[in-house]
Amino acid sequence: MFPSFTASDSSDLLATFRYQAAPMNLNQHQAHALMEQNGAVVIDVRTPEEYHEGHIEGAYLMPLAELYQHHELSVLKARDTPVLLYCRSGRRSGLAMHDLARLGFKYLMNMGGVLTWEYGLTTDEPQLPFAEAVARVTPLQDKF
């Protein structure tokens, strides 16, 4: 038999979670719990076509091929905002995570890809401008 996974709420999943100033991988359950707590901004590094077919709710599109052209990245770096990155399978988001780390970004997390995402996708655009979403991120207390 396979082990079962159960948690009563997102705080259970994040009980031992700690942000790291180095790139780290998260499983999708931890990532979802972190999103529920508004503990990170979510960036999709897939192509615009992939994003518009369905993306994680609240995710901002910054394709890997254009990632470094986005002036919004300066907002993330200035605030040391925790970032959850994803793509289709986790490969492109892993590349983006390590590239951003080399550029001095902190608290970068690769949550893999939408291929294994169990929490549903949307085609709705995020409601907040990126800078406002970054400003509203509330890192989990005592987790740095």
Topology of this protein?
Blueprint: H1 10-13, E1 24-25, H2 28-36, E2 41-44, H3 48-53, E3 60-61, H4 73-79, E4 83-87, H5 91-102, E5 108-113, H6 130-136
Parallel strand pairs: 1-5, 2-3, 2-4, 4-5
| Parts with pLDDT < 50 across at least 5 consecutive residues | 1-7
Strand percent estimate: 5-15%
CATH class: Alpha Beta
Count of DSSP strands:
5
Rounded Rg: 14 Å
Strand order of the largest sheet: 1-5-4-2-3
The CATH homologous superfamily is called Rhodanese-like domain
Fraction of residues in helices? Answer: 25-40%
Question: Which outline best applies?
Answer: globular
Q: From the 3D structure, determine the CATH topology.
A: Oxidized Rhodanese, domain 1
Count of individual helical segments: 6
Give me the CATH architecture, please: 3-Layer(aba) Sandwich
Give the termini separation.
37 Å
- Number of structural domains: 1
How would you describe this structure to a colleague?
This protein is of the alpha/beta class and 144 residues long. The chain is 31% helix and 13% strand. It has six helices and five strands. It has helices at 10-13, 28-36, 48-53, 73-79, 91-102, 130-136; strands at residues 24-25, 41-44, 60-61, 83-87, 108-113. It has a five-stranded parallel sheet, sandwiched between helices. The longest helix has 12 residues, at 91-102. Residues 1-7 have low confidence and may be disordered.
